Amino acid sequence: MQIQQAILHRIEKEKNTSGTGSAIPVTRTSQLPIDGRLEKMTEEILKIYGKSTNGYGTFNANQTLYQFPVKLKDYVLQSTDFIQFTIDTTDLISLKMAGEAFSTGGYVLILRYTNLGQDWLMVAMLKLKHGTGINEQTMDLSDTLSFDIDHLHEAARVDLAKWQSNTQPYLSFVKKRQTTSEVSKYFREALGCTEYTDSKHQTIQIKKAFEDYCEANSWSSEKKRTGRQQFYEHCDAKDKSGEPVNLAALSAILDDQNPTSFSEFVRDNDYQVNDTFKPDRATFSKLNRISKSFGSVKVSFEVQDIDNGKVAYDPDNRCLVIRDLPSELIDEINKHKSSDATTTA
């Protein structure tokens, strides 16, 4: 991870206040020095962000109402310098914060960094927490202030290359679990975060995550088969009822001994899956059914048919063996086989 640019601004706002003038930006005019302290803090933030991310999406297309993508484009194209871009962004956040009475001020951290060849921009709201420190010379205790990184409720990150090529989803963000009043919503509104709802993409991602999870945990073939069946049945039931799949609920079903293990695996490895998503039937059906076309031949059968021996693969002859064919099918095959033999004679 290599930090390119970083800055901190402050927004002053008391809880239970709202309206014009309630959120006041206090901005700095120079970038943060890129030193060991910044690098350590950034690594901690990115670690927590990876575990907290639960929303993926794009910027709202209405650039009149949502100015952040416009400001970002000007910055990336170098029409605006980094400091002015971050001041403009802080202003956008403070305007939205002023409309949320229960929101409180904090520090706006804006980072541009590269990691594994990818170019990223992150915006995060950091709060302060009180603590107790010690003077190493006198060994007297003293009050301290530090950033409360463990509770990262307002943060978003943009994959700049994917954004510029409009490869979706290029945006990820932290979204608090649904409550009657979500205090941090103003932050996503300020940046124009729009949740990505591509059913197929998210179902492909969660299916891949499950296969990787089985591999990482060395699941036996039998356990994998059971897990795939549970996965399919849950998605099938949700699809038929018109309800979304909840990642936390699916995680508990797949591994009831470690109910949060799968969902944590998804977050730790950055699979692009929202907390809830609409299952794509064509994708999740592959957990339960194998279908393939080659030439003029089409085959389709349930995975269960392999388990019960109705369908088998002969590796020596690269043949598919299907047992217990119905009499009608056998008669039809023989009829055409006899017809071919007569014609050849």
Automatic annotation (TrEMBL):
Keyword Cytoplasm: yes
Pfam families assigned: NA37 (PF04245)
InterPro entries: Nucleoid_associated_NdpA
Main localization, broad class: cytoplasm
GO molecular-function terms, A-Z: double-stranded DNA binding; single-stranded RNA binding
UniProt-annotated location(s): Cytoplasm
Alphabetically ordered keywords of this record: Cytoplasm
GO CC aspect terms: bacterial nucleoid; cytoplasm
The family this protein is said to belong to: Belongs to the YejK family.
Name by which UniProt lists this protein: Nucleoid-associated protein YejK
Organism: Ferriphaselus amnicola
